[in-house]
Amino acid sequence: MIPGIEKGQGEPEFVRAYRARAWDAFARMKLPATTEEAWRRTDIRKLDAGRFAPAAPDEAHPDPPIWLLEPLAGDKHGGQITITPNGVEAFLDNELAEKGVVFTDLKTAIRKHPETLEKVLGQLVNAEEDKLSALAGAFAEQGVLLYVPKGVVVETPLHSVLWGPGVGNAYFSHLLVWMEEGSSATYVHEYASPTENGQVLHSGIVEVHVGEAANLRFVELQSWGENVWNFTHERARVDRAGELDWIFGAVGSHLTKNFSEIDLVGEGATGRMSGFYFTDGVQHFDHDTQQNHNAPHTTSDLLFKGALEDQSRSVWQGMIYVAPGAQKTDGYQANRNLVLSREARADSIPGLEILADDVRCTHGATVGKVDPEEVFYLRSRGIPEGEAERLIVEGFFDPIMQRIPFDKVRQRLEQGIVDKLS
Amino acid sequence: MAQLEIKNLHVCIGENEIIKGLDLVVGQGEIHALMGPNGSGKSTLAYALMGHPSYQVTAGDILFDGESLLEMAPDERSHLGMFLAFQYPVAIPGVTVANFLRTAINGHRQAKNPDDKGMPIPEFRKVLKEKMDLLQMDHGFAGRYLNDGFSGGEKKRAEILQMATLEPRIAILDETDSGLDIDALRTVAEGVNALQGPDLGVLVITHYQRLLNYIKPDYVHVMFSGMIVESGGPELALQLEEQGYDWIREKHGEANAVSAATGDS
Predict the structure, then answer these.
(1) A395/B95 touch (CB, cutoff 8 Å), yes or no
(2) Comparison of pLDDT for A50 and A99, the residue scoring more
(3) pLDDT at A77 over 80
(4) Which residue of A has its CA nearest to B75?
(5) Whose CA is closest to B159, among A235, A380, A360?
(6) Cβ(B175)–Cβ(B210) under 8 Å?
(7) Does A374 sit within 8 Å of B90, measured CB to CB?
């Protein structure tokens, strides 16, 4: 049942130990329940947990659509990894490989780059956080390791896709990113699958280290089919003068519970988190974000914006933490929601915990509706009702689009708006 | 000849009847001024003509070229050639003037031809530039978010820019002079005059005579208590300027002026 443990495929000792600890935690823990604060608004009792099996190769699995594999952050890829239950396709530009860049799938990383993997595996996310993260830690076969050596600037963006079709399949993923001092890269990862009739489970862990004065633009797109129950535990650590620009775009899944944290651990570290989400039908997205200022002169800036249609629901719960002594920090968090139907509901819960005295922290949370006066104004100019609503929604998301420096990522999200409104 | 014909119009907001049997005909090529004290129902008329959902027409009709507008949505009225310059233009954050106007133009094109693919962007840019030049507007205006953070004068100019771009056949200017200093007023009036011609009928709604120094009306009507109580030529506006509205109240009865209490103008 546990790859690499029971099958004894000779994974290195640190991987085996990591998986064994996670497995112990998994066996020990119960599924999260709404009695726990972090899960109070997300009920997963309908997850048919006993019915899943790890995804296996099957000719019946559809291939990922071509559009999913197109470059999003530029005209071409410096490297691309496509992970499906039928196998992995990976390539990396020779020039980058020669400079020591590693960009490979998890199984290959375990075999060929254990020393690099060991730097990051389990260093940022505690797999024992809950039963679902434990599951990801113990089982993760689908994953990516990105390593950028000191001072190396990766000009062309890197792209990976996890394609997860098949009712009853469970996908366990682990993304590991290590940016050495002074390095720079743009990395886009997408989770996607077709919408099918029956549950699919995904549990993922994301661990990111941005070293001193390193710079990472990290885009995560979530386009799961609307039958997927999606859980992720993600944490990025930014060292002195490092910069992380972290972008989330979520339109898919039946239910998502996402924990994303940023740890600013060195002076002058900067973390920006930008989230776009749009729910419809009976989708339920729950984003739990945390911005930890553990060092002085650190800056964090979070903006999550979401729109909701039909009977869908979103939760955003954010926290800015400023550690004792982390003076001159500047923390910002805002969550804005636009509720487009009477039955949709958005909860927005900001939070601050400040243990230093010379800081600037601000937050804001709003849940609003489309103003009928705006609709009337637009319609009076000959814009039909549906188009008027689309314009207003696009306008609402504009501040997020302004934060995304990639045309094609923006276009994808704009297409998401059109699809959700049609 | 396209004309707007308002026949025995009654309009309610909720339980309150604001317009109480109003008749007016505005032909293309004509400029009509509609004046009246606050609370007489002028803005209610403007919104009702454009089809605001909060204003119910309970009796009478609004005809455009003989066709009733009552069952038409605001966008359909716009497609026919109706235009309302708002007293309080609404801000649409995140939507640029250019994006908005292009969507509006395409809405009109697609109403005429459902297969229309929309105005090509280069052509749209050219049209927009021409109209902005006509109204002596900075081209940077096109990139700003619609009415978001605009000054009073900018909002009113943006209204006239929309009018210039959409080329309506009947335009209603609702208190376009309110909140403008004399220079802004002149600019806006010049804009309207530049669009004036045999194809455009204009209904200028105003409380004060001063706008009419710049936009010369052919006809002046006085509205009071939800009805038109006086009609005449430009001299009527001058009379109101000199004498105020007191003689109207005396002549047509203070008792009817209940709508002032609603705060509607």
Answers:
(1) yes
(2) A99
(3) yes
(4) A382
(5) A380
(6) no
(7) yes
Chain B residues with CB inside 8 Å of A381's CB?
Answer: 75, 78, 100, 104, 107, 162, 166
DSSP B186: H
DSSP state of B160: H
Q: Is A69 exposed, middle or buried (0-12, 13-18, 19+ CB in 10 A)?
A: middle
Cβ–Cβ gap A379/B93 under 8 Å: no
| Residue B29, domain extent | 3-89+169-262
Domain co-membership, B8 together with B68: yes
pLDDT at site A4: 45
Q: What is the pLDDT of residues B12-59, one digit of tens each?
A: 999 999 999 999 999 999 999 999 988 899 999 999 999 999 999 999
A202, part of any domain: yes
Asked if the structure places residue B20 within a domain, the reply is yes
Q: Could you tell me the pLDDT band of residue A28, with boundaries at 50, 70 and 90?
A: very high
Q: Does B234 touch chain A (CB under 8 A)?
A: no
Contact residues on chain A for B145, CB-CB shorter than 8 A: 395, 398
Nearest residue of chain A to residue B161 (CA atoms): A381
Say if residues A167 and A198 touch (Cβ distance below 8 Å): yes
CA distance B10 to A148: 73
Beta bridge partners of B113: none
In this structure, what token pair is assigned to residue B205? 């709604």
Task: Please tell me the total count of domains within chain B.
Answer: 2
**What pTM value is reported for the model?**
0.92
Number of domains in chain A: 1
Contact A377 B52 (CB under 8 A): no
- Look at residue A125 and tell me if it is in a domain: yes
Domain containing B238 — which CATH number?
3.40.50.300
- Whether B115 and B133 share a structural domain: yes
Would you call B138 exposed, middle or buried from its count of C-beta atoms within 10 A (0-12, 13-18, 19+)?
A: exposed
ipTM, 2 decimals? 0.94
Same domain, B39 and B132: no
Distance from CA of A241 to the nearest CA of B (A): 32
Q: Tell me, yes or no, whether B158 lies in a domain.
A: no
- What's residue B253's pLDDT? 77
Is there a single domain that holds both residue B21 and residue B110?
Answer: no
Q: Share the mean pLDDT of chain A.
A: 95
Residue A410 maps to a domain: no
Q: Which residues is B169 bridged to in the sheet? A: none
Q: In this structure, are B58 and B43 located in the same domain?
A: yes
**With bands split at pLDDT 50, 70 and 90, how would you rate the model's confidence at B254?**
low
B232, B205: one domain: yes
Full domain range(s) for residue A36 = 13-265
Interface list for chain A against chain B, based on CB atoms closer than 8 Å: 371-374, 376-385, 387-388, 391-392, 394-399
Per-residue model confidence (pLDDT) at position B259 = 47
Q: Is residue A23 part of a domain?
A: yes
Locus of tokens 């820019």:
B161
Averaged over A211-238, what is the pLDDT?
98
